[in-house]
């Protein structure tokens, strides 16, 4: 039904919102060095970032090499926006056909008969589950931002006036923002790669280049949560332990799990 297919558009916009919330820092970069005015740095510990410059550059080079038709200047966030925009346009071009549809569909639908793949873009159980996970993660991420306030930065550091936050979601697990990140990433993978998606139905992942692009982008999506699980949690715990000592130890005894209650 056309209405059911069009109903996916606001859900895709919601998915875009969850991505924006998750990957947009709520506070400015925590500079370890004095600024141009000579003011003292606001941190008292080394600053570490999640995505190294080489990683960003490598991803951009690989994407533009493997998928030049999608964009010539894609970063990680831009890739998400581009894929979602392509899916929305494909749905509109199929369900509300205009003279432009004859030009749009051959570009966005790489199936044997342009338009047949786009007509299969729909809300599926896989998409619904993924969307709910991504929305839950986005909302939890906002709660973490508000609970931490100005102390929440994307860089691993401790401010000079830092205090240990143990309330709200931080009373359930020690790193709830990473719990939210996992929900968003897992949900997004289901939405982007599952049945009924633009990538799957329109033949974008077919062929050698398509498979290479799909694999590269999947690796990039999973890179951040993997780093969070196996690197950042350990580093942050060590940094907080050093900064707060017995206060941190009491929090760990009360809140023993880092990301998933009862599991990890």
From TrEMBL:
<dbReference type="GO" id="GO:0004671">
    <property type="term" value="F:protein C-terminal S-isoprenylcysteine carboxyl O-methyltransferase activity"/>
</dbReference>
<dbReference type="InterPro" id="IPR007269">
    <property type="entry name" value="ICMT_MeTrfase"/>
</dbReference>
<feature type="transmembrane region" description="Helical">
    <location>
        <begin position="125"/>
        <end position="144"/>
    </location>
</feature>
<dbReference type="GO" id="GO:0005789">
    <property type="term" value="C:endoplasmic reticulum membrane"/>
</dbReference>
<keyword id="KW-0949">S-adenosyl-L-methionine</keyword>
<feature type="signal peptide">
    <location>
        <begin position="1"/>
        <end position="18"/>
    </location>
</feature>
<keyword id="KW-1133">Transmembrane helix</keyword>
<keyword id="KW-0808">Transferase</keyword>
<keyword id="KW-0812">Transmembrane</keyword>
<keyword id="KW-0256">Endoplasmic reticulum</keyword>
<keyword id="KW-0489">Methyltransferase</keyword>
<comment type="similarity">
    <text>Belongs to the class VI-like SAM-binding methyltransferase superfamily. Isoprenylcysteine carboxyl methyltransferase family.</text>
</comment>
<dbReference type="GO" id="GO:0032259">
    <property type="term" value="P:methylation"/>
</dbReference>
<feature type="transmembrane region" description="Helical">
    <location>
        <begin position="180"/>
        <end position="200"/>
    </location>
</feature>
<keyword id="KW-0732">Signal</keyword>
<keyword id="KW-0472">Membrane</keyword>
<protein>
    <recommendedName>
        <fullName>Protein-S-isoprenylcysteine O-methyltransferase</fullName>
        <ecNumber>2.1.1.100</ecNumber>
    </recommendedName>
</protein>
<feature type="transmembrane region" description="Helical">
    <location>
        <begin position="212"/>
        <end position="231"/>
    </location>
</feature>
<dbReference type="Pfam" id="PF04140">
    <property type="entry name" value="ICMT"/>
</dbReference>
């Amino acid at each position: 039904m056309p209405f059911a297919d069009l109903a996916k558009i606001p859900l895709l916009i919601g998915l875009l919102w969850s991505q924006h919330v998750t990957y947009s820092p709520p506070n400015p970069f925590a500079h370890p060095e004095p600024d141009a005015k000579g003011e003292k740095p606001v941190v008292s510990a080394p600053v570490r970032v999640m995505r190294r410059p080489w990683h960003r550059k490598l991803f951009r080079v690989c994407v533009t090499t493997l998928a030049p038709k999608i964009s010539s200047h894609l970063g990680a966030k831009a890739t998400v926006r581009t894929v979602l925009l392509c899916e929305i346009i494909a749905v509109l071009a199929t369900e509300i056909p205009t003279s432009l549809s004859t030009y749009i569909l051959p570009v966005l639908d790489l199936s044997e008969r342009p338009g047949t793949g786009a007509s299969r873009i729909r809300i599926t159980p896989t998409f619904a589950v993924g969307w709910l996970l991504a929305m839950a993660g986005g909302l939890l991420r906002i709660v973490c931002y508000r609970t931490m306030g100005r102390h929440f930065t994307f860089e691993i550091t401790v401010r000079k006036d830092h205090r240990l936050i143990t309330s709200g979601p931080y009373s359930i697990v020690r790193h709830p923002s990473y719990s939210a990140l996992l929900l968003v990433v897992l949900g997004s993978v289901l939405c982007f790669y599952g049945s009924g998606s633009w990538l799957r139905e329109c033949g974008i992942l077919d062929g050698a280049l398509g498979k290479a692009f799909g694999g590269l982008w999947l690796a990039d999506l999973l890179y951040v949560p993997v780093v969070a699980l196996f690197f950042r949690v350990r580093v942050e715990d060590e940094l907080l332990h050093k900064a707060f000592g017995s206060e941190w130890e009491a929090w760990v005894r009360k809140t023993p799990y880092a990301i998933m209650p009862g599991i990890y």
